[in-house]
Amino acid sequence: xxxxxxxxxxxxxxxxxxxxWTGAALLALVLAFALLAPVIFPADPLRQSLRHILAAPxxxxxxxxxxxxxxxxxxxxxxxxxxxxxxxxxxxSSALLGVAVGVLAAWRGGWVDRAASLVADAFLALPGxxxxxIVSAIVPVTPLxxxxxxxxxxxxEYFRLTRATVSRLLAAPGVQxxxxxxxxxxxxxxxxxxxxxxxxxxxxxxxxxxTAIMMIAALGFVSVGMRPPTPELGLMxxxxxxxxxxxxxxxxxxVAATFVTLLGLNLVAKGGRA
Amino acid sequence: xxxxxxxxxxxxHAGAEMLVEPVSLALxxxxxxxxxxxxxxxxxxxxxxxxxxxxxxxxxxxQVTLAGRALDLxxxxxxxxxxxxxxxxxxxxxWLSLDxxxxxxxxxxxxxxxxxxxxxxxxxxxxxxxxxxxxxxEAADRRPDQLSGGMAQRVAFAAARAGGARIVVADEPxxxxxxxxxxxxxxxxxxxxxxGGALLTITHDLGVARRLGGELAxxxxxxxxxxxxxxxxxxxxxxxxxxxxxxxxxxSWPQVPPRPxxxxxxxxxxxxxxxxxxxxxxxxxxxxxxxxxIVGIWGPSGCGKSTLGxxxxxxxxxxxxxxxxxxxxxxxxxxxxxxxxxSAFPRCLALGRALDDLVRLHRLDGARIxxxxxxxxxxxxLLARRPAEVSGGELQRLALLRLLLLDPVFLFADEPTSxxxxxxxxxxTGLLTEVARETGMALLIVSHDxxxxxxxADRVISLASPxxxxxxxxxxxx
Lengths: 274, 478
Description:
The complex is a heterodimer.
Chain A: H1 17-40, H2 72-108, H3 110-125, H4 128-138, H5 142-171, H6 173-180, H7 185-221, H8 233-240, H9 248-273
Helix pairs in contact in A: 1-2, 1-9, 2-3, 2-5, 2-7, 3-5, 4-5, 5-7, 7-8, 7-9, 8-9
Chain B: E1 3-14, E2 17-28, E3 32-37, H1 43-51, E4 59-66, E5 69-72, E6 87-90, H2 104-115, H3 120-133, H4 149-161, E7 167-171, H5 179-194, E8 198-203, H6 206-212, E9 215-220, E10 223-229, H7 230-235, H8 240-248, E11 267-276, E12 279-289, E13 294-298, H9 305-312, E14 320-325, E15 334-337, H10 351-361, H11 368-375, H12 392-404, E16 410-414, H13 422-439, E17 442-447, H14 450-456, E18 459-462
Parallel strand pairs in B: 3-8, 3-9, 6-7, 7-8, 13-17, 13-18, 15-16, 16-17
Antiparallel strand pairs in B: 1-2, 1-4, 4-5, 9-10, 11-12, 11-14
Helix pairs in contact in B: 2-3, 2-4, 4-5, 8-13, 12-13
Membrane topology (chain A): Multi-pass membrane protein
Domain ABC transmembrane type-1 (chain A): 80-264
Transmembrane segments (chain A): 21-41, 82-106, 118-138, 144-161, 200-227, 247-269
């Protein structure tokens, strides 16, 4: 509709930075707890104590104790560190892989592009959880298996977005002008492609981390992920589920921690799209 | 002559800021009214305020009287009932506003059926009559992608009028059209006026304003600076801005004598043939470009003007023929100036940084930048800004500056001024030709405006196919 076109500057569309800041604050809170809890409340997350079975919070563990008398403070902090670390590693490696293959496919075109798209489509055809399960059946160390599996799930998004963005940019006059001026591929990536890709990568990264944490917890919850007694969010939920009558707070703790983390990540992603 | 629409003290505000100062105007049957102005002059906003389609965030004030009803523009609710029945809008670039999946007849019949309340059989019959009246009988069953630009324009015109509207508002009806199509659209609008309708045209094109005649209002920065009968305003402009506008029209540029180039050619093309999409664009084209020579390329849209430049620069491959460059010339001395200036720079980079990058890459003398900036009448403050924060004319001169740092021997300017306003177009074209003369750079300039080419180029090559007769050009067989 061209009649709505305006030939005068309009006030800029209102952006909502609060979403991004709230999200970042929530994530900082989760991260601070995961890192500082072992310093302030030192306890072995694996140490059992019959005296403390489902005990109420005390000075040594402000979040109370689980059904084996282990410190929930130490277990939650350890579980969060594990999930966040795997998620961060998976996001970093999938971004690297996806952006590299995406740029290559868009740049070279032809059979490179077709082959990369074919591989991406093949991975896309597999449900993400199944892919992570298959990898964990092959790779013996569970965190390593999660990392590899999640990378294989997450890189496709990066690949598709990078390829679409980069092929549009490469066809634009700006890149042609830079080539005519004598600039090489590295300059074109740094000045033309990267500034357009970077904001998108942050949004994708936040979503990807949320997906990763969900998957780790989901597989733990159905007992095919991390093995007990490792503290892990999903595993903690399923272990504490039978005691929901006696110790509802103990069950709420891992659920709330997962919720706050995912909310924070989604708010960061949302702020990035505004 | 009956008055069909009367607008009193119409103004547009964005918050406290006044974008269009109060204007009163009247549209009478049989007499066109034209609003002439540059991008950003507020001419479209004024028209949108009158017909009630201002975008959200902007407010209008004033009063519009039509069909015996007075509408207060500060309220947004009165207009809907008038759209289609009394006021029809002819959009810019109509191929974008037609439904891409609907045949032409149905696009028009919808207006007859929904707005006038005819049965579908009657509506289709009426649409067929409309199409026949515009010479489009054979296009009734075609989708917009099967129509030419001019045909799409006529279908959009018929659709805009299907509801029985006697007042047509045309917003930049000739934007993006070449000369032939432009005249066709103007004729269409004039036919409507001759049949007793009222017409409000918004344009930046002096040629359109001249051909439409009637009443003319010239807008500048949200104000009407001059108004009166079109012939009189254009022949004896009183306001300084109108004078500059008329002087900037290529038709009134001084005619410079052609100057043949001298020396060994910097670029030679022999027997070039190129096809795109199964259509032969040109065949056996040969071209020699000598230093300091300015060659114009003219042709209707889609005739392969840009493709020819890309082939000459080695950016595209010809089907046959070859392009040879002068011996010993560095590849970066063959350059291109783009149609859309902002798209030729890295979007997120300050312009000064982009220039510094170039200076570092080729180990150029950075001290030449300030010299060139004053030569091209550019303010140094521009270097701190990003491409989107600089006006089109300034950005095009900055693009020229960036090229001049490399001492180009050949420059392909691909419609370098088609997105610029008239006054800026005159300035940029003048600079381009001056630079070519001074530095001995061969300039190949593409335009759809034959006047511009015949007044700035030494010779003009027409790429029009023989069956579409081009306008008279200072032509040299290529």
